[in-house]
Amino acid sequence: MESKSEATVPMRRAFTLLELLIVLALVVVLVSVVTLTLRAPLSNQRLRAGSDVLRTALGRTRNQAIRFGRPYLLSVQSGSDSLAISPWLGDGGSGSAAPANSDTATAAPSPPVGEEGSGSGAEQSVPLPEGILVHSANIATQGVGEPPPDGQAQQILFLPDGTAVDAVVTLRNESGDELSVYLHGVTAGSRVGPIASSNGVVR
After folding, report:
1. Residue 195: strand pairing partners
2. For the sheet containing 167-172, what is the strand order?
3. Is 10's pLDDT higher than 80?
4. Comparing 69-73, 88-92, 157-161, which segment has the lowest mean pLDDT?
5. Distance between CA atoms of 148 and 145, rounded to whole angstroms?
6. Which residues, 6 or more positions from 84, have their beta carbon under 8 angstroms from its beta carbon?
7. Are 102 and 92 in contact (CB under 8 A)?
8. CA atoms within 13 A on the CB side of 106
9. What is the DSSP string of 118-150?
10. Which positions ≥6 away from 26 have C-beta within 8 Å?
11. Mean pLDDT on 13-36
């Protein structure tokens, strides 16, 4: 007869390999769902931030044109992750043809070194948020020559009187969502349109 001390203790049942694989699969599915759920809001947030960067660059270009009394250009190029601000230097520099109503543009004093970079011809690069690219630009070209060939940067002109050319610049994120910024030339004011997702839904 066995004593109580020798009674067997029930063994704890371990997880089987199949149960572990099922749990692992559920974890992977949950992580994927959470990632997809958070990706769109984060991408759209960066898209909004990109529109803020673009509008700030538009205002900065206008302010420099007024301050230094000469035309300034904001260059945008499809597929680029940055913008560029530079003074209009005439046919030999930035820009193509002479801007309309700018007879005194070439006679305007150059900004001194240190005022806006490394000198009067310095180009100031403005990076866009990570994952945000310039998708397209539709810029009025009246008074500033013909549109540039495909693959070259397009330029938004700002005159010393504070006016600009009409323009629409569209940004795109890695998900294919797009957001357009509209510039009204007479007032040089800008506004942001709704986000158009890659599946055609407007938000």
Report:
1. 179
2. 133-139, 167-172, 178-184, 189-196
3. no
4. 88-92
5. 9
6. 74, 75, 123, 124, 125, 126, 153
7. no
8. 12
9. SSTTPPEEEEPPTT-EEEEEEE--TTS-SPPPT
10. none
11. 78
The pTM (predicted TM-score) of the whole model is: 0.68
* One-letter amino acid of 146: E
For every residue of 23-46, DSSP letters joined together read HHHHHHHHHHHHHHHHHHHHHHHH
What is the C-alpha separation between 115 and 50, in angstroms, rounded?
26
Tokens of 131: 């994952």
Asked if residue 168 lies in contact with residue 176, where contact means CB atoms within 8 angstroms, the answer is: no
CATH architecture of 18-102+123-196: 3-Layer(bab) Sandwich (3.55)
For the chain, which residues make up each domain, given as ranges?
18-102+123-196
The owner of tokens 């403005």 is 126
- In the numeric block, the tokens 């010393």 are attached to 160
Contact 88, 157 (CB under 8 A): yes
Strands (E), the chain: 72-76, 82-87, 124-127, 133-139, 154-158, 167-172, 178-184, 189-196
Radius of gyration of the chain (CA): 28
3-class SS of residue 52:
helix
Contacts 24+ apart (CB under 8 A), 162-167: 162/62, 162/65, 162/66, 162/188, 163/187, 163/188, 164/58, 164/62, 164/188, 165/139, 165/140, 165/141, 166/139, 166/140, 167/137, 167/138, 167/139, 167/140
Q: How many residues does the chain have?
A: 203
Q: Maximum distance among all alpha carbons in the chain?
A: 118
